[in-house]
Amino acid sequence: MGKPTGFLEYKRETAKVLPPKVRIANFNEFRTPISKEKQKKQGARCMACGVPFCQSGMMLNGMASGCPLHNLVPETNDLVYTGNWKQAYLRLSKTHSFPEFTSRVCPALCEAACTCNLDSEPVSTKENERAIIETAWQEGWVKPQIPRVRTGKTIAVIGSGPSGLAAAQQLNRRGHSVTVYERSDRPGGLLRYGIPNMKLEKSVVDRRIHLMEEEGVQFVLNTNVGKDITADELLKKYDRVVLACGASNPRDIKVPGREAKGIYFAVDFLGKVTKTLLDSDFEKVPYELAKDKHVLVIGGGDTGNDCVGTSVRLGAKSVTQLEMMPKPPVERAANNPWPQWPRVLKTDYGQEEAIAVFGHDPRVYQTTVTEFIADKKGNVCKAKIVKLKSQKDEKTGRMMMVPVEGTEEVIPADVVLIAAGFLGSQKYVTDAFKVSINGRTNVETKPEAYETSVPRVFTAGDMHRGQSLVVWAIREGREAARAVDESLMGYTNL
Ligand SMILES: Cc1cc2nc3c(=O)[nH]c(=O)nc-3n(C[C@H](O)[C@H](O)[C@H](O)COP(=O)(O)OP(=O)(O)OC[C@H]3O[C@@H](n4cnc5c(N)ncnc54)[C@H](O)[C@@H]3O)c2cc1C
Ligand code: SF4
Known about the structure:
With about 500 residues, this protein is an alpha/beta fold. The protein contains 18 helices and 18 strands. The strands form five sheets. The chain has a five-stranded parallel beta sheet, with helices on both faces. Strands 9-17-10-11-12 form a five-stranded parallel beta sheet.
Protein backbone atom coordinates (compact mmCIF):
# COMPACT_ATOMS: atom_id res chain seq x y z
CA MET A 1 0.00 0.00 0.00
CA GLY A 2 1.42 3.38 -0.91
CA LYS A 3 5.21 3.51 -1.14
CA PRO A 4 6.93 1.90 1.87
CA THR A 5 9.36 4.82 2.16
CA GLY A 6 6.94 7.49 0.89
CA PHE A 7 6.30 9.06 4.27
CA LEU A 8 10.07 9.58 4.65
CA GLU A 9 10.56 10.97 1.14
CA TYR A 10 7.58 13.29 0.75
CA LYS A 11 6.29 16.02 3.01
CA ARG A 12 2.55 16.46 3.54
CA GLU A 13 1.21 18.96 1.04
CA THR A 14 -2.37 20.20 1.04
CA ALA A 15 -4.57 22.50 -1.06
CA LYS A 16 -3.54 26.10 -1.62
CA VAL A 17 -5.73 28.35 0.52
CA LEU A 18 -6.54 31.94 -0.46
CA PRO A 19 -5.35 34.49 2.15
CA PRO A 20 -8.14 35.43 4.61
CA LYS A 21 -8.41 39.05 3.44
CA VAL A 22 -8.84 37.95 -0.17
CA ARG A 23 -11.34 35.14 0.37
CA ILE A 24 -13.73 37.18 2.52
CA ALA A 25 -14.64 39.22 -0.57
CA ASN A 26 -17.15 36.53 -1.52
CA PHE A 27 -18.82 33.30 -0.37
CA ASN A 28 -16.94 30.95 -2.70
CA GLU A 29 -14.86 27.95 -1.66
CA PHE A 30 -11.28 29.10 -1.25
CA ARG A 31 -9.15 25.95 -1.43
CA THR A 32 -7.40 25.10 -4.71
CA PRO A 33 -6.42 21.43 -4.78
CA ILE A 34 -2.84 20.50 -5.65
CA SER A 35 -2.10 18.91 -9.04
CA LYS A 36 -2.90 15.25 -9.66
CA GLU A 37 0.83 14.43 -9.90
CA LYS A 38 1.47 15.99 -6.50
CA GLN A 39 -1.59 14.24 -5.08
CA LYS A 40 -0.11 10.88 -6.14
CA LYS A 41 2.90 11.59 -3.92
CA GLN A 42 0.52 12.28 -1.07
CA GLY A 43 -0.98 8.83 -1.69
CA ALA A 44 2.54 7.44 -1.56
CA ARG A 45 2.90 8.68 2.04
CA CYS A 46 0.46 5.97 3.23
CA MET A 47 2.77 3.35 4.67
CA ALA A 48 0.60 0.22 4.99
CA CYS A 49 0.94 0.18 8.75
CA GLY A 50 0.01 -3.09 10.48
CA VAL A 51 -3.20 -1.80 12.05
CA PRO A 52 -4.81 0.98 10.00
CA PHE A 53 -6.68 2.90 12.69
CA CYS A 54 -7.67 5.41 9.96
CA GLN A 55 -10.48 3.11 8.82
CA SER A 56 -11.57 1.69 12.16
CA GLY A 57 -14.29 4.19 13.13
CA MET A 58 -14.30 2.88 16.71
CA MET A 59 -15.28 4.79 19.82
CA LEU A 60 -12.34 5.62 22.10
CA ASN A 61 -12.95 7.57 25.27
CA GLY A 62 -16.38 8.68 24.03
CA MET A 63 -15.13 9.96 20.67
CA ALA A 64 -14.78 8.31 17.27
CA SER A 65 -11.30 7.39 16.09
CA GLY A 66 -10.93 6.69 12.37
CA CYS A 67 -13.50 6.85 9.60
CA PRO A 68 -17.06 5.95 10.70
CA LEU A 69 -17.80 4.75 7.15
CA HIS A 70 -14.84 2.34 7.34
CA ASN A 71 -13.53 3.73 4.07
CA LEU A 72 -10.77 1.43 2.80
CA VAL A 73 -8.24 4.18 3.35
CA PRO A 74 -4.90 2.41 2.76
CA GLU A 75 -6.32 0.83 -0.40
CA THR A 76 -7.62 4.07 -1.88
CA ASN A 77 -4.41 5.88 -0.93
CA ASP A 78 -2.45 3.19 -2.77
CA LEU A 79 -4.64 3.56 -5.85
CA VAL A 80 -4.05 7.32 -5.76
CA TYR A 81 -0.28 6.70 -5.55
CA THR A 82 -0.35 4.39 -8.58
CA GLY A 83 -2.67 6.72 -10.51
CA ASN A 84 -5.50 4.16 -10.78
CA TRP A 85 -8.14 6.85 -10.34
CA LYS A 86 -11.07 4.82 -11.62
CA GLN A 87 -10.27 1.89 -9.35
CA ALA A 88 -9.86 4.35 -6.49
CA TYR A 89 -13.33 5.73 -7.21
CA LEU A 90 -14.87 2.26 -7.36
CA ARG A 91 -13.18 1.27 -4.10
CA LEU A 92 -14.32 4.46 -2.37
CA SER A 93 -17.87 3.89 -3.62
CA LYS A 94 -18.02 0.54 -1.82
CA THR A 95 -18.35 2.29 1.54
CA HIS A 96 -19.26 5.88 0.71
CA SER A 97 -22.29 7.58 -0.81
CA PHE A 98 -21.13 11.19 -1.15
CA PRO A 99 -17.33 11.66 -0.94
CA GLU A 100 -17.71 15.13 -2.50
CA PHE A 101 -19.37 16.31 0.76
CA THR A 102 -17.02 14.79 3.32
CA SER A 103 -13.91 15.65 1.34
CA ARG A 104 -14.93 19.27 1.86
CA VAL A 105 -16.47 19.36 5.34
CA CYS A 106 -15.32 16.30 7.29
CA PRO A 107 -13.02 16.96 10.26
CA ALA A 108 -11.04 13.96 8.89
CA LEU A 109 -11.22 11.49 11.73
CA CYS A 110 -9.11 9.23 9.49
CA GLU A 111 -6.21 11.67 9.55
CA ALA A 112 -6.37 12.17 13.32
CA ALA A 113 -5.96 8.38 13.71
CA CYS A 114 -3.28 8.03 10.98
CA THR A 115 -0.10 6.35 12.24
CA CYS A 116 1.98 9.09 10.59
CA ASN A 117 0.16 11.50 12.93
CA LEU A 118 1.77 9.83 15.94
CA ASP A 119 4.96 11.86 15.62
CA SER A 120 4.71 13.54 12.23
CA GLU A 121 2.06 14.78 9.81
CA PRO A 122 -0.84 12.53 8.71
CA VAL A 123 -1.45 11.28 5.18
CA SER A 124 -3.75 13.76 3.43
CA THR A 125 -6.54 11.21 3.10
CA LYS A 126 -9.30 13.82 2.98
CA GLU A 127 -7.76 15.60 0.00
CA ASN A 128 -6.96 12.29 -1.67
CA GLU A 129 -10.69 11.55 -1.31
CA ARG A 130 -11.54 14.85 -2.95
CA ALA A 131 -9.12 14.20 -5.82
CA ILE A 132 -10.69 10.76 -6.37
CA ILE A 133 -14.30 11.91 -6.43
CA GLU A 134 -13.72 15.10 -8.42
CA THR A 135 -11.70 13.14 -11.00
CA ALA A 136 -14.58 10.68 -11.19
CA TRP A 137 -17.13 13.45 -11.81
CA GLN A 138 -14.88 15.11 -14.42
CA GLU A 139 -14.26 11.84 -16.25
CA GLY A 140 -17.98 10.98 -16.30
CA TRP A 141 -17.57 7.88 -14.12
CA VAL A 142 -20.24 9.01 -11.66
CA LYS A 143 -23.24 7.81 -13.59
CA PRO A 144 -26.84 7.30 -12.48
CA GLN A 145 -27.22 3.77 -11.15
CA ILE A 146 -30.73 2.94 -12.24
CA PRO A 147 -31.97 -0.40 -10.88
CA ARG A 148 -32.82 -2.93 -13.60
CA VAL A 149 -35.72 -4.37 -11.61
CA ARG A 150 -38.12 -2.54 -9.32
CA THR A 151 -39.30 -4.46 -6.26
CA GLY A 152 -42.68 -2.74 -6.08
CA LYS A 153 -41.96 -1.67 -2.49
CA THR A 154 -42.40 1.99 -1.57
CA ILE A 155 -40.49 4.04 0.99
CA ALA A 156 -40.90 7.60 2.28
CA VAL A 157 -37.77 9.27 3.63
CA ILE A 158 -38.53 12.35 5.72
CA GLY A 159 -35.69 14.87 5.54
CA SER A 160 -33.14 15.42 2.78
CA GLY A 161 -30.00 15.94 4.87
CA PRO A 162 -27.03 13.61 4.37
CA SER A 163 -28.65 10.76 6.34
CA GLY A 164 -31.91 10.90 4.37
CA LEU A 165 -30.04 11.21 1.08
CA ALA A 166 -27.78 8.25 1.89
CA ALA A 167 -30.77 6.08 2.88
CA ALA A 168 -32.68 7.13 -0.25
CA GLN A 169 -29.72 6.46 -2.54
CA GLN A 170 -29.16 2.96 -1.21
CA LEU A 171 -32.81 1.94 -1.13
CA ASN A 172 -33.47 3.26 -4.62
CA ARG A 173 -30.43 1.50 -6.06
CA ARG A 174 -31.77 -1.69 -4.47
CA GLY A 175 -34.89 -1.31 -6.57
CA HIS A 176 -37.38 0.12 -4.08
CA SER A 177 -39.33 3.26 -5.03
CA VAL A 178 -38.21 6.12 -2.79
CA THR A 179 -39.81 9.51 -2.19
CA VAL A 180 -37.96 12.09 -0.08
CA TYR A 181 -40.12 14.66 1.73
CA GLU A 182 -38.45 17.94 2.66
CA ARG A 183 -40.00 20.96 4.39
CA SER A 184 -37.48 23.44 2.93
CA ASP A 185 -37.60 24.88 -0.56
CA ARG A 186 -34.36 23.12 -1.54
CA PRO A 187 -33.01 19.68 -0.64
CA GLY A 188 -29.81 18.99 1.33
CA GLY A 189 -30.62 19.64 5.00
CA LEU A 190 -27.70 21.25 6.79
CA LEU A 191 -25.52 20.63 3.73
CA ARG A 192 -27.72 23.29 2.13
CA TYR A 193 -28.88 25.68 4.84
CA GLY A 194 -26.37 25.10 7.66
CA ILE A 195 -22.85 24.67 6.32
CA PRO A 196 -21.92 27.94 4.57
CA ASN A 197 -21.24 28.14 0.84
CA MET A 198 -17.53 28.88 1.33
CA LYS A 199 -17.14 25.45 2.94
CA LEU A 200 -19.44 23.55 0.60
CA GLU A 201 -20.58 25.22 -2.60
CA LYS A 202 -24.24 24.44 -3.16
CA SER A 203 -23.65 23.46 -6.79
CA VAL A 204 -21.91 20.39 -5.32
CA VAL A 205 -25.14 19.47 -3.50
CA ASP A 206 -27.25 20.17 -6.63
CA ARG A 207 -25.00 17.96 -8.76
CA ARG A 208 -25.68 14.98 -6.48
CA ILE A 209 -29.41 15.67 -6.15
CA HIS A 210 -29.77 15.79 -9.95
CA LEU A 211 -28.00 12.44 -10.21
CA MET A 212 -30.31 10.93 -7.60
CA GLU A 213 -33.32 12.23 -9.54
CA GLU A 214 -31.96 10.58 -12.68
CA GLU A 215 -31.62 7.37 -10.66
CA GLY A 216 -35.32 7.58 -9.85
CA VAL A 217 -35.52 9.16 -6.38
CA GLN A 218 -38.44 11.59 -6.12
CA PHE A 219 -38.12 14.77 -4.06
CA VAL A 220 -41.21 16.47 -2.65
CA LEU A 221 -40.18 19.88 -1.36
CA ASN A 222 -41.97 22.53 0.75
CA THR A 223 -43.83 19.75 2.56
CA ASN A 224 -43.68 19.66 6.32
CA VAL A 225 -44.49 16.15 7.48
CA GLY A 226 -46.65 16.26 10.61
CA LYS A 227 -48.20 19.55 9.46
CA ASP A 228 -48.84 19.52 5.68
CA ILE A 229 -49.22 15.75 5.52
CA THR A 230 -50.01 13.40 8.39
CA ALA A 231 -48.07 10.38 9.62
CA ASP A 232 -51.15 8.20 8.99
CA GLU A 233 -51.33 9.27 5.35
CA LEU A 234 -47.68 8.34 4.84
CA LEU A 235 -48.00 5.02 6.65
CA LYS A 236 -50.98 4.14 4.45
CA LYS A 237 -49.23 5.15 1.24
CA TYR A 238 -45.76 3.65 1.85
CA ASP A 239 -44.43 0.27 2.99
CA ARG A 240 -41.76 1.88 5.17
CA VAL A 241 -40.96 5.35 6.52
CA VAL A 242 -37.46 6.59 7.44
CA LEU A 243 -37.37 9.59 9.79
CA ALA A 244 -34.19 11.59 9.02
CA CYS A 245 -35.30 15.00 10.26
CA GLY A 246 -32.09 16.04 12.03
CA ALA A 247 -31.62 17.41 15.53
CA SER A 248 -33.10 20.74 14.59
CA ASN A 249 -34.18 21.84 18.06
CA PRO A 250 -31.65 24.55 19.02
CA ARG A 251 -30.46 25.08 22.61
CA ASP A 252 -31.58 28.54 23.74
CA ILE A 253 -29.84 31.03 26.04
CA LYS A 254 -32.55 31.83 28.54
CA VAL A 255 -31.35 34.99 30.26
CA PRO A 256 -33.12 38.32 30.89
CA GLY A 257 -33.55 40.37 27.72
CA ARG A 258 -33.75 37.29 25.44
CA GLU A 259 -36.88 38.73 23.78
CA ALA A 260 -34.91 41.66 22.30
CA LYS A 261 -34.82 41.96 18.50
CA GLY A 262 -31.60 41.01 16.73
CA ILE A 263 -31.01 37.72 18.57
CA TYR A 264 -31.00 34.73 16.19
CA PHE A 265 -30.28 31.05 16.31
CA ALA A 266 -27.12 30.36 14.30
CA VAL A 267 -28.78 28.02 11.81
CA ASP A 268 -31.57 30.54 11.06
CA PHE A 269 -28.94 33.22 10.41
CA LEU A 270 -26.69 30.98 8.29
CA GLY A 271 -29.68 29.59 6.39
CA LYS A 272 -30.99 33.07 5.64
CA VAL A 273 -27.63 34.15 4.24
CA THR A 274 -27.38 31.08 1.99
CA LYS A 275 -30.99 31.39 0.83
CA THR A 276 -30.52 35.05 -0.12
CA LEU A 277 -27.38 34.17 -2.08
CA LEU A 278 -29.04 31.25 -3.88
CA ASP A 279 -32.33 33.09 -4.59
CA SER A 280 -30.45 35.95 -6.24
CA ASP A 281 -27.89 33.77 -8.01
CA PHE A 282 -25.24 35.31 -5.75
CA GLU A 283 -26.16 38.86 -6.89
CA LYS A 284 -27.56 39.92 -3.52
CA VAL A 285 -25.59 39.66 -0.30
CA PRO A 286 -27.67 40.27 2.87
CA TYR A 287 -25.23 42.83 4.29
CA GLU A 288 -28.02 44.35 6.40
CA LEU A 289 -27.77 41.35 8.77
CA ALA A 290 -24.35 42.33 10.10
CA LYS A 291 -22.72 45.25 8.25
CA ASP A 292 -21.14 47.77 10.64
CA LYS A 293 -22.61 45.89 13.59
CA HIS A 294 -21.01 44.42 16.68
CA VAL A 295 -21.70 40.69 16.36
CA LEU A 296 -21.70 38.47 19.42
CA VAL A 297 -21.53 34.72 18.73
CA ILE A 298 -22.42 32.48 21.68
CA GLY A 299 -20.75 29.10 21.31
CA GLY A 300 -17.16 28.26 20.52
CA GLY A 301 -17.79 25.23 18.28
CA ASP A 302 -17.80 24.74 14.53
CA THR A 303 -21.22 26.34 14.04
CA GLY A 304 -19.98 29.38 15.96
CA ASN A 305 -16.96 29.49 13.67
CA ASP A 306 -19.26 29.45 10.62
CA CYS A 307 -21.09 32.44 12.13
CA VAL A 308 -17.78 34.25 12.59
CA GLY A 309 -16.70 33.64 8.96
CA THR A 310 -20.13 34.68 7.67
CA SER A 311 -20.26 37.85 9.81
CA VAL A 312 -16.80 38.88 8.62
CA ARG A 313 -17.96 38.49 5.00
CA LEU A 314 -21.03 40.61 5.77
CA GLY A 315 -18.80 43.46 6.98
CA ALA A 316 -19.32 43.27 10.77
CA LYS A 317 -17.71 46.05 12.84
CA SER A 318 -16.49 43.54 15.42
CA VAL A 319 -16.99 39.85 16.14
CA THR A 320 -16.74 38.27 19.59
CA GLN A 321 -17.16 34.52 20.10
CA LEU A 322 -17.89 33.31 23.61
CA GLU A 323 -16.95 29.84 24.82
CA MET A 324 -17.85 28.51 28.28
CA MET A 325 -15.05 25.97 28.49
CA PRO A 326 -11.34 26.71 29.07
CA LYS A 327 -8.97 27.18 26.13
CA PRO A 328 -7.83 23.73 24.94
CA PRO A 329 -4.12 22.84 25.06
CA VAL A 330 -1.98 23.33 21.95
CA GLU A 331 -0.66 19.76 22.20
CA ARG A 332 -2.43 16.56 23.24
CA ALA A 333 -2.80 16.14 27.00
CA ALA A 334 -1.43 12.93 28.57
CA ASN A 335 -4.98 11.57 29.01
CA ASN A 336 -5.79 12.12 25.33
CA PRO A 337 -3.24 9.94 23.49
CA TRP A 338 -3.19 8.99 19.79
CA PRO A 339 -5.27 7.50 18.13
CA GLN A 340 -8.00 9.24 20.12
CA TRP A 341 -9.52 12.34 18.55
CA PRO A 342 -7.16 15.18 19.60
CA ARG A 343 -8.81 17.68 21.95
CA VAL A 344 -6.44 20.51 21.04
CA LEU A 345 -6.74 24.16 20.06
CA LYS A 346 -7.83 24.54 16.46
CA THR A 347 -8.05 27.87 14.71
CA ASP A 348 -10.65 27.39 12.00
CA TYR A 349 -11.18 29.42 8.82
CA GLY A 350 -13.61 31.96 10.33
CA GLN A 351 -11.38 32.67 13.28
CA GLU A 352 -8.38 33.08 10.94
CA GLU A 353 -10.38 35.61 8.96
CA ALA A 354 -11.45 37.54 12.09
CA ILE A 355 -7.79 37.64 13.21
CA ALA A 356 -6.76 39.00 9.79
CA VAL A 357 -9.46 41.69 9.80
CA PHE A 358 -9.61 42.75 13.48
CA GLY A 359 -6.07 41.87 14.56
CA HIS A 360 -7.06 39.51 17.38
CA ASP A 361 -8.66 36.14 18.01
CA PRO A 362 -12.46 36.57 18.36
CA ARG A 363 -12.67 33.76 20.94
CA VAL A 364 -13.14 34.58 24.61
CA TYR A 365 -12.93 31.48 26.81
CA GLN A 366 -14.57 30.62 30.14
CA THR A 367 -17.19 33.29 29.62
CA THR A 368 -20.96 33.39 29.25
CA VAL A 369 -23.82 35.86 28.87
CA THR A 370 -25.99 36.77 31.85
CA GLU A 371 -28.24 39.39 30.24
CA PHE A 372 -29.09 41.01 26.91
CA ILE A 373 -29.73 44.75 26.96
CA ALA A 374 -32.06 46.37 24.40
CA ASP A 375 -32.31 50.00 23.23
CA LYS A 376 -35.56 52.02 23.28
CA LYS A 377 -36.75 50.36 20.06
CA GLY A 378 -36.32 46.92 21.57
CA ASN A 379 -33.21 46.06 19.53
CA VAL A 380 -30.39 44.32 21.35
CA CYS A 381 -27.43 46.68 21.74
CA LYS A 382 -25.35 45.26 24.60
CA ALA A 383 -24.70 42.04 26.48
CA LYS A 384 -23.65 41.47 30.08
CA ILE A 385 -20.97 38.79 30.27
CA VAL A 386 -19.17 37.09 33.14
CA LYS A 387 -16.08 34.91 33.55
CA LEU A 388 -16.54 31.28 34.61
CA LYS A 389 -14.47 28.88 36.67
CA SER A 390 -14.60 25.13 37.08
CA GLN A 391 -16.01 23.98 40.43
CA LYS A 392 -17.24 20.69 41.88
CA ASP A 393 -21.01 20.52 42.43
CA GLU A 394 -21.61 19.57 46.08
CA LYS A 395 -24.70 17.47 45.31
CA THR A 396 -23.69 15.57 42.15
CA GLY A 397 -19.89 15.64 42.51
CA ARG A 398 -19.66 16.71 38.86
CA MET A 399 -17.47 19.57 37.67
CA MET A 400 -19.53 22.65 36.71
CA MET A 401 -18.65 26.02 35.19
CA VAL A 402 -19.77 28.71 37.68
CA PRO A 403 -19.61 32.54 37.50
CA VAL A 404 -16.67 34.34 39.08
CA GLU A 405 -17.96 37.19 41.20
CA GLY A 406 -16.77 40.68 40.25
CA THR A 407 -15.88 39.80 36.66
CA GLU A 408 -19.10 41.09 35.06
CA GLU A 409 -18.63 43.27 32.00
CA VAL A 410 -20.92 44.92 29.45
CA ILE A 411 -19.94 44.64 25.80
CA PRO A 412 -21.56 46.04 22.63
CA ALA A 413 -23.77 43.53 20.77
CA ASP A 414 -26.04 44.69 17.91
CA VAL A 415 -26.50 41.16 16.61
CA VAL A 416 -26.41 38.02 18.74
CA LEU A 417 -26.02 34.58 17.19
CA ILE A 418 -26.79 31.62 19.43
CA ALA A 419 -24.64 28.65 18.44
CA ALA A 420 -24.99 26.70 21.68
CA GLY A 421 -25.78 23.30 20.16
CA PHE A 422 -28.97 21.33 19.63
CA LEU A 423 -31.29 19.53 22.01
CA GLY A 424 -32.51 16.80 19.69
CA SER A 425 -35.51 16.06 17.52
CA GLN A 426 -38.56 18.27 17.13
CA LYS A 427 -41.61 17.23 19.14
CA TYR A 428 -44.24 17.69 16.43
CA VAL A 429 -42.62 15.02 14.25
CA THR A 430 -41.99 12.45 16.99
CA ASP A 431 -45.53 13.08 18.32
CA ALA A 432 -47.00 12.65 14.83
CA PHE A 433 -45.42 9.22 14.44
CA LYS A 434 -45.74 8.38 18.18
CA VAL A 435 -42.15 7.08 18.26
CA SER A 436 -40.36 6.70 21.61
CA ILE A 437 -37.62 9.19 22.36
CA ASN A 438 -34.83 9.04 24.93
CA GLY A 439 -33.88 11.59 27.60
CA ARG A 440 -32.04 13.66 24.99
CA THR A 441 -35.13 13.64 22.72
CA ASN A 442 -33.31 11.51 20.14
CA VAL A 443 -35.54 8.86 18.55
CA GLU A 444 -35.01 5.61 20.41
CA THR A 445 -34.01 2.29 18.84
CA LYS A 446 -32.20 -0.80 20.13
CA PRO A 447 -28.39 -0.33 20.09
CA GLU A 448 -26.96 -0.46 16.55
CA ALA A 449 -30.53 -0.79 15.21
CA TYR A 450 -32.69 1.63 13.23
CA GLU A 451 -36.30 0.52 13.67
CA THR A 452 -38.20 2.75 16.08
CA SER A 453 -40.78 1.70 18.67
CA VAL A 454 -43.40 1.96 15.89
CA PRO A 455 -43.39 -0.92 13.37
CA ARG A 456 -42.40 0.04 9.78
CA VAL A 457 -40.92 3.36 10.97
CA PHE A 458 -37.11 3.67 10.94
CA THR A 459 -34.77 6.53 11.82
CA ALA A 460 -31.26 7.75 10.97
CA GLY A 461 -28.81 10.62 11.38
CA ASP A 462 -28.85 13.42 13.94
CA MET A 463 -32.48 12.63 14.80
CA HIS A 464 -31.26 9.23 16.00
CA ARG A 465 -27.75 9.83 17.39
CA GLY A 466 -28.03 13.54 18.29
CA GLN A 467 -26.09 16.42 16.78
CA SER A 468 -23.12 14.93 14.98
CA LEU A 469 -21.20 15.02 11.70
CA VAL A 470 -21.95 14.56 8.02
CA VAL A 471 -19.87 11.39 7.92
CA TRP A 472 -21.94 9.86 10.76
CA ALA A 473 -25.18 10.92 9.07
CA ILE A 474 -24.11 9.13 5.87
CA ARG A 475 -23.17 6.01 7.82
CA GLU A 476 -26.51 6.05 9.65
CA GLY A 477 -28.44 6.54 6.40
CA ARG A 478 -26.67 3.60 4.78
CA GLU A 479 -27.20 1.35 7.80
CA ALA A 480 -30.85 2.33 8.15
CA ALA A 481 -31.28 1.45 4.46
CA ARG A 482 -29.89 -2.04 5.20
CA ALA A 483 -32.36 -2.44 8.06
CA VAL A 484 -35.30 -1.27 5.92
CA ASP A 485 -34.28 -3.53 3.05
CA GLU A 486 -33.96 -6.54 5.35
CA SER A 487 -37.37 -5.88 6.87
CA LEU A 488 -38.93 -5.68 3.39
CA MET A 489 -37.14 -8.54 1.66
CA GLY A 490 -36.20 -10.90 4.52
CA TYR A 491 -32.51 -10.48 3.66
CA THR A 492 -30.33 -7.64 2.40
CA ASN A 493 -27.44 -7.27 0.02
CA LEU A 494 -26.87 -3.59 0.73
C1 LIG B 1 -23.98 25.37 11.01
C2 LIG B 1 -23.57 23.93 10.98
C3 LIG B 1 -22.37 23.61 10.39
C4 LIG B 1 -21.96 22.29 10.35
N1 LIG B 1 -20.76 22.00 9.79
C5 LIG B 1 -20.36 20.72 9.69
C6 LIG B 1 -19.13 20.39 9.08
O1 LIG B 1 -18.39 21.26 8.62
N2 LIG B 1 -18.79 19.09 9.00
C7 LIG B 1 -19.59 18.09 9.47
O2 LIG B 1 -19.23 16.90 9.35
N3 LIG B 1 -20.75 18.36 10.09
C8 LIG B 1 -21.16 19.66 10.20
N4 LIG B 1 -22.34 19.95 10.82
C9 LIG B 1 -23.20 18.84 11.30
C10 LIG B 1 -23.93 18.18 10.12
O3 LIG B 1 -24.39 19.16 9.22
C11 LIG B 1 -25.08 17.31 10.62
O4 LIG B 1 -24.57 16.36 11.53
C12 LIG B 1 -25.77 16.57 9.47
O5 LIG B 1 -26.21 17.45 8.48
C13 LIG B 1 -26.93 15.74 9.99
O6 LIG B 1 -27.59 15.16 8.91
P1 LIG B 1 -29.10 14.68 9.01
O7 LIG B 1 -29.44 14.15 7.65
O8 LIG B 1 -29.27 13.77 10.15
O9 LIG B 1 -29.95 15.98 9.33
P2 LIG B 1 -30.05 17.43 8.67
O10 LIG B 1 -28.89 17.74 7.82
O11 LIG B 1 -30.36 18.33 9.80
O12 LIG B 1 -31.32 17.31 7.71
C14 LIG B 1 -32.61 17.13 8.21
C15 LIG B 1 -33.61 17.60 7.17
O13 LIG B 1 -34.91 17.21 7.57
C16 LIG B 1 -35.82 18.24 7.24
N5 LIG B 1 -37.01 18.07 8.08
C17 LIG B 1 -37.07 18.12 9.44
N6 LIG B 1 -38.33 17.89 9.86
C18 LIG B 1 -39.08 17.69 8.74
C19 LIG B 1 -40.44 17.42 8.52
N7 LIG B 1 -41.29 17.31 9.54
N8 LIG B 1 -40.89 17.29 7.25
C20 LIG B 1 -40.04 17.40 6.20
N9 LIG B 1 -38.71 17.67 6.36
C21 LIG B 1 -38.24 17.80 7.61
C22 LIG B 1 -35.04 19.49 7.56
O14 LIG B 1 -35.60 20.62 6.91
C23 LIG B 1 -33.66 19.11 7.02
O15 LIG B 1 -33.55 19.45 5.66
C24 LIG B 1 -22.77 21.27 10.91
C25 LIG B 1 -23.97 21.60 11.53
C26 LIG B 1 -24.37 22.92 11.57
C27 LIG B 1 -25.65 23.28 12.25
S1 SF4 C 1 -15.25 10.45 5.32
FE1 SF4 C 1 -14.04 11.76 6.71
S2 SF4 C 1 -13.11 10.31 8.18
FE2 SF4 C 1 -13.84 9.09 6.41
S3 SF4 C 1 -12.03 8.93 5.05
FE3 SF4 C 1 -13.25 10.72 4.35
S4 SF4 C 1 -12.34 12.49 5.39
FE4 SF4 C 1 -11.64 10.63 6.46
